[in-house]
Design goal:
11 helices, 27-stranded antiparallel β-sheet, 689 residues, 39 strands, flat, alpha+beta, 8-stranded parallel β-sheet, 35% strand
């Protein structure tokens, strides 16, 4: 072990030289300058050239060497200063705070005064901290200090480029940018909103961006004036965010490993065309799919374009699909966390959509541009406060935050929602959740009315939202009769109360009931004023209610001209099922995909979903890669000439005269396919010119 001691030599005028001695050999000397009266250390200069300056106080050391809090530290090519509260009232730093300032430069004090070579022009950044009495440890990573302000200076050390403000817990509240730099425009400021769900209060939810008049900067800082809103960013995960600007444009962004953002979807409310971007693993743009809104009773057209960059002035067309009718297709999500997606539990737990944004967006991301059926309140294990006798009293907290999150997600991804208010498990005899069984909501008119009145506010807020395709009152209500013993007359009274309420509060909203099968749909739910009829189909039903069934005249009469969809469809044999439903006159199909492992009918694989995406009834156009002229035309039904397919040569034989747009130019037909066998036995013809 090496022995170590110190030899002190005092030179007068407050100068002390401390020599460290190891095994009898002097190896270093520190020069100490002290305050004249107290003899507290004022400055220590180490042999390395590092310099430290201290407050005139005796907090540390021994009877021979005593010093106070650090005021300055110079190491190498930069130095820092600490302005502690309660030293000088004129400094305006509260007792519990310290102002830490960083400088870039060499500190060479010309005299014995502290800070005698501090140069304002070398100032780079300053921080104001709450130190909570911790003044010995200056490491801001470990000392528990809470940052309250941060200021970044221009090269002159005087001009302020950026300011950041934090609350008492260290959460960033506002930042202001006087000058342009990095991603920041000049004269802009940001405010931050945080999640309010228990346990997430420190997680940023939104960053809001504003511009401001420089003359109003002081008022912006003290909160007495507000700027002009430009855009907001919603943080979904470390790799995903949503940007919304003042005009209503919505862009979802993918964040790569370097922090660069890439558009994922873009929606302009001026035309409601959804743009969905596809990138490869190296972030090269592969294609952009444009989903047009439905119009004239027909589903919207779809265009697949192949620009090399989102900023390209022209996006070459690769494929275009124009539906012939309004047949809808999509999926059942059907939930993120069954029974807990909307609102807090009565016990105060929260697992809803707004708390699980990353999971919600991840699930919905795969279905952008689709129709999605999704469950909400289910068996009421969350979302509703009940009295001791089971009477619904009110919504629990977070109901609106969770529904807002779902609606915002659907808007960003161009999804049409079919929210399912309740599930049959609300009264299944306790088979699913013994503590969430409420048969009295059906059998007791007063409790039923109480629930309807609570939900009335919810429907008023969301009933006619453009992202809502239709409202599904209950999933397979027949199950509450079979499992919970609820009389069908009580079930029908419940449905009728909700149908009437929704139509009264939001005229024009579509209302449906998710009947368990087609037979029960006709047996129980016709004649009640539904706008859309719905049945479910799985393989076990084929023997009783076969999928391939053309509605009879009596059945059509019961429907009163209203459309019918398969609201739940087993996720197998996708193309064939869609063909059957369309052929038989149904209005759409939503395939089930709960993401589980129960059986194949409940899981929609990537290949099966691609079949769903590729299926259409209408006309498909493809275009040549280089010339971008029309290459082929495929029709679901034969045209007036009896053909279902044309292929064209790559030449501008027919020029429609649109300058700069070759997509409406095409060549001569070199192949055609007939819809049925011709008299000469041919099914297709090829032409050589």
């Amino acid at each position: 072990m090496t022995s170590k001691m110190f030899n002190l030599r005092k030179f007068g005028l407050g100068v002390i030289m401390i020599t460290a001695i190891m095994t009898g050999v002097a190896i270093a000397e520190d020069i100490i300058i002290t305050y004249p009266v107290t003899e507290n250390w004022k400055r220590k200069t180490e042999p390395s050239g590092n310099i430290y300056e201290f407050e005139d106080e005796s907090l540390y050391g021994d009877q021979y060497n005593h010093y106070g809090r650090t005021k300055l530290a110079f190491q190498g090519t930069s130095y820092k200063t600490w302005l502690w509260g309660n030293i000088n009232p004129a400094d305006a730093v509260p007792d519990t705070q310290v102002l830490l300032t960083e400088y870039s430069g060499i500190y060479t004090p010309p005299n014995n005064n502290v800070w005698s070579d501090v140069q304002v022009s070398e100032r780079q950044v300053s921080y104001l901290f709450d130190h909570h009495g911790q003044v010995a440890n200056l490491n801001t990573v470990t000392n528990g200090w809470i940052m309250r302000e941060k200021i970044l200076y221009a090269n002159d050390g005087v001009t302020i480029n950026e300011k950041y403000f934090y609350d008492a817990t260290g959460k960033l509240q506002k930042e202001i940018h006087s000058a342009a730099g990095g991603f920041h425009a000049a004269h802009t400021y940001y405010t931050y909103d945080y999640h309010t769900s228990p346990g997430m209060e420190t997680v940023i939810h939104y960053k809001n961006v504003y511009s401001y008049d420089p003359a109003q900067e002081a008022n912006i800082l003290n909160g007495t004036a507000a700027g002009t809103f430009l855009e907001s960013y919603e943080y979904i995960s470390s790799t995903y965010m949503v940007k919304r600007d003042a005009s209503g444009k919505i862009t979802t962004l993918l964040i790569d490993s370097l922090g660069n953002s890439h558009p994922n979807t873009y929606l302009d409310p001026a035309n409601n065309i959804l743009h969905a971007y596809q990138w490869d693993a190296s972030w090269n743009l592969v294609s952009v799919t444009k989903y047009y809104p439905a119009s004239g009773g027909k589903s919207g057209a779809i265009e697949i374009c192949t620009p090399t960059s989102p900023s390209d002035p022209v996006w070459p067309l690769k494929k275009k699909i124009v539906p012939d009718d309004g047949f809808i297709k999509g999926v059942n999500l059907p939930w993120v966390n069954y029974g807990y997606d909307i609102g807090m539990t009565q016990g105060g737990d929260h697992f809803g959509f707004s708390r699980n944004l990353s999971t919600l967006y991840s699930a919905m991301e795969k279905r952008k541009g689709d129709t999605v059926r999704i469950f909400l309140f289910n068996d009421l294990r969350a979302g509703i406060n009940f009295a001791a006798d089971g009477t619904p009293l009110s919504f629990t907290d977070k109901v609106y935050e969770d529904m807002d999150a779902l609606i915002a997600c659907a808007k960003a991804l161009g999804i049409k929602l079919m929210p399912v208010l309740f599930d049959y498990t609300i009264a299944d005899g306790g088979a699913t959740a013994p503590n969430a069984d409420h048969p009295d909501l059906f059998t007791d008119p007063a409790k039923r009315t109480a629930l309807v009145n609570i939900m009335k506010i919810f429907i008023q807020k969301y009933g006619l939202d453009p992202s809502i395709y239709a409202w599904d009152i209950m999933n397979e209500p027949e199950g509450a009769h079979d499992l919970g013993g609820v009389a069908m007359t009580d079930m029908q009274a419940f449905m009728q109360a909700f149908i009437t309420m929704i139509h009264t509060e939001t005229p024009g909203a579509l209302v449906t009931v998710g009947s368990r099968n087609r037979n029960e749909m006709f047996q129980y739910w016709t004649g009640m004023g539904l706008d859309l009829y719905q049945f479910h189909y799985y393989g076990t039903m084929e023997g009783i209610t076969p999928l391939d069934h053309v509605l009879t005249a009596p059945e059509l009469a019961l429907l009163g001209g209203k459309p019918v969809i398969a609201g739940e469809m087993a996720s197998t044999d996708i193309t064939n099922k869609l063909n059957i439903l369309h052929k038989d006159g149904y209005a759409g199909s939503l395939f089930w995909d709960d993401g589980g492992t129960f059986n194949d009918e409940h899981i929609l694989s990537a290949a099966e979903y691609q079949q769903l995406q590729d299926w259409f009834f209408g006309t498909q156009y493809t275009y040549y890669t280089t010339s971008h002229r029309l290459e082929s035309k495929t029709m679901s039904t034969a045209d007036q000439y009896g053909n279902v397919y044309y292929h064209y040569t790559d030449e501008s034989y027919y020029d429609n005269g649109t300058p700069g747009d070759p997509t409406d130019d095409y060549g001569r037909v070199d192949k055609q396919v007939l819809g049925s066998v011709a008299a000469d036995g041919a099914i297709a013809y090829a032409y050589i010119y």
